[in-house]
Each structure stands twice: as C-alpha cells, then as structure tokens.
Design a protein that fits this description.
Layout (H helix, E strand, L loop, with lengths): L5 E2 L6 E2 L3 H8 L4 H7 L4 H26 L20 E3 L6 E3 L3 H7 L10 H16 L11 H8 L6 H7 L2 H14 L4 H22 L5 H4 L5 H11 L2 E3 L5 E3 L2 H24 L3 H36 L7 H24 L3 H19 L3 H5 L3 H5 L10 H6 L2 H7 L2
Antiparallel strand pairs: 1-2, 3-4, 5-6
C-alpha cells in the first residue's frame, strides 16, 4: 500500500507523496536539509533524510497523543490488527515510531545507532523518557510543580537549599513527574532521592562555574567536562595508597550517570516538540559524549570500587542462639498483643502488633525488609497454594519428612 501519510518537520504539512522532494525544494535553506543533500555518500544522504522525515512524524505524533484522537505515523504499519498509540515508542536514534515489543530489535540494527549492543531495558527506558519529554508542557522558564508531585514528593521532602533549587528548575521537576508516573506514589522516597541528587549536582555545577544556570543549560557538550568534574567531586573521587582511582560513594556516581541520560532524553524530546534544533543537538551531542567517555571516566572506577568494598567487607553471621531468643520473643509479643487488641481496640497496640508481625516475616523471609513492607494483604491472600498446584514429578522426588512439611 502506497498511501502512507507523512508530516513535514518544518511546516507541519501532511503529504502522501514526494515528501523528500517537498523538503528539498521548499526547505532547502534549512541547515539539516543542506547537510543531508550535500553528503557525497548515498547511504549517509539517505540516513540523514530519513531522520528528517522521522522527526516530522515524531512532532506530529506528539500532537496526536496530546489531543487523544487521530492516527500516529509509525515506521511500519501493523498488518494483522489495529493497535493503540500506547503500543508504539520512538527510536532514540532515528526517531521513528516502532511497536514497543520490536523496538529493541530495530534499535540493534538501526543505521543511525552508533552504539551497538544496548540492553532491551535501556532502549525501552530511554525511549519512554524521549517520548515524555516531547509530550511535556514545560518550557525552560516554567517550573510550575504538578499537583501529583506536590502532594506526594514535595510534602515529605526536607526544606533546604536543595529543595529551593529543585522547585526553580523545570527539567528536574519534569524528571520527577516522569518517575512518579512510572513508579507510582508508593515510591515517593526513591523519586525524592533521585530529584535531590540532580538538585545537588546543579548546585555543584553552579559553584564550579560561578554562574547561576538551570540544569538544562549544562546538558550540552561544552559543559560535559564540567559535569564529569562535578560528579567526581560529589562522589569523593581520590587515589588510594596504591595510586588507584576510587570513589568514596561509588553508587552515587553510577546513579548520577543514569539520571543524566534520562534528563538528556527529556531535553531532546522537549526540543523536538518545540522545533528547537539547538537544544536538540546539545542533548544529542551530550548523549554521544556520555556513551563514549562516561564508562572509562566514571562507571568503570565506580564498579571497581564497589567490587573492592564488597570483597573487603566482613560478613557478620548471626549466632543461632540469638536468633532463637529473638524468634521466641516475637512469638510471645504477637500472642500477647493479639489478646490485648481483641479485648480493647487501640491504635498503639495495633501498631506494635503490626511491627512485630513484619519483623517476624522479615526474619523468616531472610531477605530485604523492603519486600515485606510493601507486600499487600491481597497478594498474600491470592498466593499460589501448593496443595492445589503441586507438580506430581517434583512431589515424587521428595522425602517423607518433606511431604509432611508440605501439609503445614
């Protein structure tokens, strides 16, 4: 079928035929078009022109998604069934919209991808941030805090210099909004931590540059070396007695690297939507520098430091007698508090019982307490029952004592 509609990136007209001729004839004076047509290599010329076409589709699709009606322009139209716009995500390299389950495969073979072998989770995550940046209603001078962010994150965030820095920066606020939409209100502590890390980075960058710029201004190739220096100073970069490079807090250096990639994708999406080629090129070039230099400047040192710290950290194993004392105490407390609660409903007694129960489950689970703290009552009630879903082959390999234990 040759009736595919395409959108012009520059004038936003919808055309069904000869969009490349339209771009070359009508917008030949644009820098992107001039750069494409002057390429001597046919492959490079086709790739540059394909990118311009996809940018037009990206800009048009953002309007359709925000309006809530219309058809999005995708790179390959589905043949078997009708799909919704939410099933498609943009490629972070060529900006074409692909079925999200096939995006990783395209990204691996995309002719504009200079970094082969990306993980599927990285491709999907960066694509979602690029799309979120395009849908964003924020500008560089508008730092209005969304209601969902104000009611969840900022109500619990400590009010200090970092807090004041965050509320004045639209890019950090938008970063928090995207995270809270992805993770939900139950992860407000984590979202607040990530936003405060970017706020502290912005403060450090302004101190080192002796300027007062937004974080958006530092997501540019000319400031990449300054960002590297700021991250090293925040994470405590130093050389140990063997003259080996290490970090005092290597996890912070790694997390800041992930945060910078996400805010750069957000900036790129916002720039495409507003047809800001300068900001788009800044974010693209920053991401290219990050992909080429961040590993040997930050990540490899941080990972080596984590490995060394883990190797030298002694494993403190609890004594069996101590565990028995704790277990017996918790059992007695749970019985006593249950009786008190049945006799007299009291919020203080209920809280103590809940804490004792969670401690007992955590001790039994022998894993992170965070897993138990977030376990819902409905999840426990709908758990898989071994007696009704047992595997006969596995059951036949169990010892008599183990079969008895299964009935408990």
């Amino acid at each position: 079928m040759y009736d595919k509609t395409l959108a012009c990136y520059f004038c936003e007209k919808l055309l069904k035929h000869r969009i490349q001729k339209h771009i070359e004839n009508v917008h030949g004076n644009e820098m992107m078009v001039a750069e494409a047509v002057t390429k001597t290599s046919k492959t490079e010329r086709e790739n540059k022109m394909k990118k311009i076409k996809n940018l037009g589709a990206f800009k048009y699709n953002i309007k359709v998604i925000k309006a809530g009606h219309g058809n999005v322009i995708v790179a390959r139209r589905p043949t078997k069934k009708t799909l919704e716009a939410k099933h498609f995500l943009p490629c972070i390299h060529c900006y074409g919209f692909f079925y999200k389950k096939e995006l990783w495969r395209h990204s691996r073979k995309c002719p504009l991808n200079m970094k082969k072998g990306e993980k599927q989770t990285e491709v999907i995550s960066r694509s979602k941030h690029l799309l979120a940046g395009g849908i964003s209603t924020y500008s560089s001078c508008d730092a209005q805090i969304p209601k969902e962010l104000q009611e969840t994150v900022f109500q619990k965030m400590r009010t200090d210099e970092v807090h004041d820095t965050i509320i004045k920066d639209s890019l950090i606020i938008h970063f928090g909004k995207v995270l809270i939409n992805q993770l939900g209100p139950r992860r407000t502590g984590y979202v607040s931590q990530r936003m405060r890390q970017l706020g502290k980075l912005k403060i450090k960058l302004n101190e080192m540059s002796r300027e007062n710029h937004s974080l958006d201004s530092y997501i540019a190739p000319q400031h990449f070396d300054l960002v590297i220096s700021a991250v090293k100073e925040m994470a405590g970069f130093q050389r140990n007695e063997q003259r080996i490079s290490v970090f005092d807090t290597p996890s912070l250096a790694l997390t800041l690297g992930h945060n910078l990639v996400k805010v750069a994708e957000l900036k790129r999406g916002i720039a495409i939507r507003s047809t800001d080629d300068v900001a788009k090129n800044e974010s693209v070039n920053f991401l290219q520098l990050h992909a080429s230099d961040w590993t040997h400047l930050i990540s490899s040192i941080a990972l080596a430091t984590l490995k060394t710290n883990k190797f030298n950290k002694p494993a403190a194993l609890p004594v069996t007698s101590d565990l028995l004392i704790l277990k017996n105490y918790l059992d007695e407390q749970m019985v006593s508090l249950t009786q008190q609660l049945s006799e007299n409903a009291n919020s203080t007694v209920w809280k103590s019982l809940a804490e004792a129960t969670m401690t007992r489950i955590t001790l039994f689970n022998k894993r992170r307490s965070n897993e138990v703290a977030k376990m819902l009552r409905t999840s426990y009630q709908k758990r898989t029952r071994w007696t009704t879903n047992m595997n006969e082959e596995i059951l036949g390999t169990l010892k008599p004592v183990e079969k008895v234990l299964l009935k408990r």
